[in-house]
From TrEMBL:
The chain crosses the membrane at residues 267-287, 318-342, 362-384, 415-435, 441-461, 496-519, 722-747, 774-796, 816-835. It comes from Streptomyces subrutilus. Residues 273-393, 726-842 form the ABC3 transporter permease C-terminal domain. It is a multi-pass membrane protein. GO terms for cellular component: plasma membrane. Its main location: membrane. This is ABC transporter. InterPro entries: ABC3_permease_C (IPR003838), MacB_PCD (IPR025857), Macrolide_Exporter_MacB (IPR050250).
């Protein structure tokens, strides 16, 4: 029986090709994801371990802690005195103190080199032979003076800098010029991620990032023969136990490897979800293929039964065919996945990220996963057709009787589908009523069961939906249109399985599109209706807060009309931390369109508090109420509520206070942004005034309202494009399913097509009939997918409405129209080969076909 199965596979290579392609795509995505993440994990872990070579013990300071009254206690870092104590230990060969933070380097045009979030500055610490082991210099040497810096080789190359040149460097304050003392190479993760690294003299770095005489980290090197664990035991008593952590270099490298594994695991999970979607869609194609193959071979299978094969043997022969197809598909998918991993690595490199070197990691688990998934998916999809094969009665099959689903089985299927459908809608509506995160989880479960219910009910839905468009097809296309509509519902199960793959893909695409466009519109309205400022000044990449000197510099610059810094802070209400925005009362109204519902913003200038409307409702606050708070420094106060305003999430915190009051209780304020208005209004010249006033600081971004819209819109569009690309694979498999269905349908109807040709249907109209059949099936699946996608987008959007002010569902009719048009195009393209085959059939030969 196995030889018979193998012969059947070889005899039906063309028909099984689509199945092989579907499984191959899914397996390739799974194996490619596993190979890529395993390779990246090994490379990053190796890089992490390499960066701690020679480090016996590492000590990290977490800064000062706070007591119950909010007062800071402990030292800001590891003091020089502690470093000297560690250095004096017998087994210690060297100790280097480290401090680091943000530093941006500008090119000749003043533009920031690197990614913003991965631009770092650190101190250069010679520990042996006047060298720092973390850096290898290719030009010059490390900085030895306060006005010197060193740059990594990539940054120096990008800026065209050579030793001796003046380099413009900025942290969060005014830009400064330094002399370039040297250029180095490093394994630092910031540089490998496409950022930059600036090395300062230690005293300069301490002044910039911490406090003179203090370090954030200590790297301890051991003398030959000294044990890292023994050194660790000797170092711990010298440290401030509450605010510092000491561990061996090996333990730290291992800890970082776990963090890398965790981060990559999240990315891998997302990619595997889309691979799972593709494989899920592929199941329908495989099921359809084997169902049609079995139906076409009923006479052959009956002969096997007649010569002595029992039901189990016939069933196992079909499963053996599926096994062969699964193994071949999995092997091709594994090889394709390895190529995909190489492609992903190259693609990331093209965006400027420098991934660590190293060969591909093809773990045994990846090979096993590829084979198991490929074989399992194919076998599971073939089980039902194989089971039906075993039920064929030899005598009935000898007469070439097909295996149509009985009325009873379709009735049972429709009842089960209806129950699942009703329950799924109920789950979705329950999730809508719950709102927020818990509600979205319930909606997700409801969406899953809704897709299952749709798949089960598709045979029932196909007849009335396609019957509704039959008159239009007949009127526009004549006889070919009428025949196409009839053929599309001749076998409801087959039509349902073919349309299901398109419906699933377009459900996901439509849901993401509607949500993405809606959220984008909310962001756009927020920036156009709520934001009045000409420009927003912030750190590049939003990697930190602005120095207070930024607002002071802008306030005194010519051509600047108004300046309003916004600080982010917090105070405690009861036992809960509450975020608060510190603003300038005199100018905030010129920058933001704050819709006051009660009281007046003028009360901010009197030291009173403004509260967002929803927060006020939860806290039972009204204008005139007093809110008891505890500030960052532990001081307590009663703040009178002077105004209530409509929520402005993303622009203002739920509580707003005069920045002077907030600053009195904060040792160092975090100024997130500074809003600016210029004389004459926003223009290219006005933007340049702001840039010039800040000394063309490369670390600071001056964004227009359009820039802010593009920033958020760009993120949403990028996310949607990634999703479209990933879901495109599922749609490709859907196309293969349509091709497969039509090809086998043409084969089954060979005699019928010959008769149609004989009574006058020419080749052109035969082609039109097949094309229209494909378009009808494709649009049937697409319309269902779009309808369910819109419903799910509404449901998920309802849970976002509470968190996003002015949320209103937007239906992107243009994109929905494009989706439906693409579905029709898919049908036309998928029908090209089957239609051509049907039109080329010889009439006499076709009529004689059994």
């Amino acid at each position: 029986m196995f030889r018979t199965a193998l012969r059947n596979v070889l005899a039906h290579k063309a028909r099984l090709l689509m199945t092989v392609l579907a499984v191959t795509l899914g397996v390739a995505f799974v194996s490619g994801t596993l190979v890529f993440t395993d390779t990246l994990e090994k490379s990053l872990s190796g890089q992490s371990a390499k960066s701690y070579e020679g480090v016996a013990v590492s000590v990290t300071s977490y800064g000062q802690s706070r007591d119950e009254n909010g007062q800071k206690q402990g030292e800001p870092g590891i003091s020089q005195a502690t470093l000297e104590k560690v250095k004096a230990l017998g087994g210690v060969e060297s100790v280097s103190g480290r401090v680091s933070g943000f530093a941006g380097v500008g090119d000749e045009d003043g533009k920031l080199i690197g990614s913003g979030w991965s631009n770092k500055g650190a101190n250069y610490t010679p520990v042996k032979d006047g060298k720092d082991p973390r850096y290898s210099f290719v030009q010059g040497a490390g900085p030895a003076k306060a006005d010197e810096v060193a740059l990594d080789r990539a940054t120096a190359g990008a800026g065209g800098y050579k030793v001796g040149d003046k380099v413009r460097v900025a942290t969060n304050g005014p830009v400064k010029e330094y002399s370039l003392a040297g250029v180095f190479t490093t394994e630092d993760g910031a540089v490998q991620a496409g950022g930059s690294l600036v090395l300062f003299d230690t005293e300069v770095a301490q002044e910039l990032y911490l406090k003179p005489g203090y370090y954030q980290e200590l790297s301890v090197g051991a003398k030959g023969g000294a044990s890292a664990d023994q050194l660790l035991a000797e170092i711990k008593p010298l440290l401030d136990g509450e605010n510092t952590k000491a561990q061996t270099g090996a333990a730290l490298a291992k800890e970082q490897a776990k963090e890398i594994e965790k981060g990559l695991g999240q990315m891998g999970t997302m990619l595997l979800v889309f691979a799972g979607i593709a494989l899920f869609v592929g199941v329908f194609l495989i099921y359809n293929t084997f169902t049609m193959l079995v139906t076409q071979r009923t006479k052959e299978l009956a002969l096997l039964r007649a010569v002595g094969a029992n039901r189990g043997q016939v069933m196992r022969s079909v499963l053996a065919e599926a096994l062969v197809v699964g193994i071949v598909s999995a092997a091709i998918g594994l090889v394709s996945g390895i190529g995909l991993a190489v492609g992903i690595r190259s693609l990331i490199g093209s965006f400027g990220a420098k991934l660590p070197g190293g060969g591909l990691v093809i773990a045994p688990a990846t090979v096993i996963a590829a084979l198991v998934i490929g074989v399992l998916v194919t076998m599971v999809a073939a089980v039902l057709p194989a089971w039906r094969t075993g039920r064929i009665a030899p005598v009935a099959a000898m007469g070439s009787a097909h295996l149509p689903a009985g009325a009873k089985s379709l009735l049972l299927r429709n009842v089960i589908g209806s129950v699942i459908g009703v329950l799924s809608v109920g789950l979705v509506l329950l999730g809508v009523s719950m709102g927020k995160d818990d509600g979205r989880m319930v909606i997700g479960a409801g969406a899953f069961f809704m897709l299952i219910g749709m798949i089960v009910l598709l045979p029932l839905l196909s007849r009335p939906v396609i019957a509704a468009v039959r008159p239009l097809l007949q009127r526009v296309f004549g006889v070919p249109g009428k025949l196409a509509a009839q053929n599309a519902v001749r076998n409801p199960r087959r039509t349902a399985v073919t349309a299901a793959s398109l419906a699933i893909g377009l459900t996901l695409v439509t849901t993401l599109s509607v949500l993405g466009i809606t959220v984008g519109q909310v962001v756009d309205r927020m920036s156009t209706e709520k934001l009045k400022a000409d420009y927003r000044v912030s750190m590049a990449g939003d990697i930190g807060g602005l120095d207070k000197s930024v607002a002071e510099t802008l306030a005194g610059a010519p051509g600047i009309k108004a300046v309003s810094p916004q600080a982010a802070g917090y105070f405690m209400v009861g036992e809960d931390f509450r975020s608060v925005s510190g603003v300038t009362p005199a100018t905030i109204g010129q920058m933001l369109n704050i819709e006051v519902t009660s009281g007046s913003l003028d009360s901010l200038g009197k030291g009173e508090l403004a509260v967002a409307e929803k927060t006020a409702q939860k806290q039972n606050l009204t204008v005139g109420s007093t809110l008891q708070v505890r500030y960052d420094d532990g001081q307590q106060a009663g703040l009178k509520v002077g105004a209530l305003y409509k929520d402005m999430d993303g622009l203002l915190s739920p509580y707003v206070l005069d920045n002077k009051i907030l600053g009195e209780h904060s040792e160092e304020q975090y100024v997130r942004e500074v809003y600016v208005n210029v004389e004459g209004g926003a223009s290219a010249a006005g933007q340049q005034k702001v840039v010039d006033a800040l000394g063309k600081n490369p670390a600071i971004t001056v964004a227009t309202q359009q820039d802010m819209r593009n920033e958020m819109g760009g993120m949403i569009n990028t996310m949607l494009n990634v999703m479209y690309g990933l879901l495109g694979m599922a749609l490709i498999i859907s196309v293969l399913g349509v091709v497969n269905t039509l090809a086998m349908s043409v084969f089954e109807r060979t005699q019928e097509i010959g008769m149609l040709r004989a009574i006058g249907l020419d080749r052109g109209r035969v082609k039109n009939m097949i094309r229209l059949e494909a378009v009808v099936i494709s649009l049937f699946g697409a319309v269902l997918g779009v309808a369910i996608g819109v419903f799910l987008a509404w449901a998920v959007g309802s849970t976002l409405a509470n968190a996003m002010p002015d949320y209103e569902l937007v239906l992107p009719y243009d994109r929905i129209g494009v989706f439906l048009l693409l579905a029709a195009v898919v049908g036309v393209l998928a029908a090209m080969w089957p239609a051509r085959s049907a039109a080329r059939l010889n009439m006499l030969t076709a009529i004689k076909t059994e």
